[in-house]
Amino acid sequence: MLQNKGGIFLVSGKHRKTYARISKKAIRHNLQNEQARIGDECKLFAVVKADGYGHGAVEIAKIARDSGVSGFCVALLDEALELRKAGITEPILILGIVDVEFVPIIAAEDLSVTVSSLEWLKEAEQRLVQQTKALRIHLALDTGMGRIGFRTVSELTEAENYVTNSELIEFEGIFTHFATADEADETQFNRQLKQFNKLISCLSNKPQFVHAANSATALWHQQIPTNLIRYGIAMYGLNPSGTTLKAPISLEPAMELISELVHVKEIQPGDTVSYGATYEASDCEWVGTIPIGYADGWRRSLQGQTVLVDGQRCEIIGRVCMDQCMIRLPKEYPVGTTVVLVGKSGNDQVTMEELAEYLGTINYEIICGIALRVPRIYV
Question: Does 275 participate in catalysis according to the annotation?
Fold first, then answer.
């Protein structure tokens, strides 16, 4: 529960004022914008794997459900079961390969699962004999991602024939995943699209769902044959292409990362800060300590990155510790002053893309890396 006391947000039941603030409005905005763009003929599934990309899977799923999505995608069986336990009754597609021994659980919980081999299907059918529900499957096609899926017409034809003749397995969907949908060069994308169309054309009967669109594909490649969109990173308000391609619709980042000053001091010329004494003051400087570190996902290599205090950029000085880091302040600030690590303060803003570029990675890794010990507050 979030409480506002004199402008300071407190988390009820928590004892640390470092938290990730998640905007429900932003999630709704991003989903409704995309649904309006694709129309009612295409189903929108919210991807909430990896604990909702670090935003909290159950809470995000409830917001997405209330926003009108048709279903959900996860990566693991346990992620799907977490949603079912929380009362999410909508369709859930597990995108990863699940050990065939858990087929009875998948069927009993009314889940859909990804399949990429005939051998898996044959063993699954043997484990379904005592089940009252059919197993819903989506056949994965490897058209160039090189991860999972059927690769040839002969493999796919065998799999389709097998599920068509089975009374225990329902052929609900077929899909692929593009490796370069977020890049300006469309050579590899078009190569995969050609292979996808080739494989799809060999089917005797297409299943209910034929899908190939993640966030990037949905944003920049609307010409592909798909009637289901797996909407992931864009739902959270982040551009899947980082800064390479401009998003065709408005995306509102849902997560802010907030902390506060817990200690403020003045250091003298020659004084050092943090492990390894890698920072040495050249003058009298005000230094603030923030209760967040690499155990929270605030990476050690963020030394030199800036955060916002009172709308001003403040550099992280010295090495980021496990639970704390230090910043150089422009003047003395009182303990308890808000520090914005990601988000807006005054006329400035620190974005996930900025952190990703500083670290030489992608925004996905930043948000997924925020540790569970950082509370998520939904506003």
Answer: yes
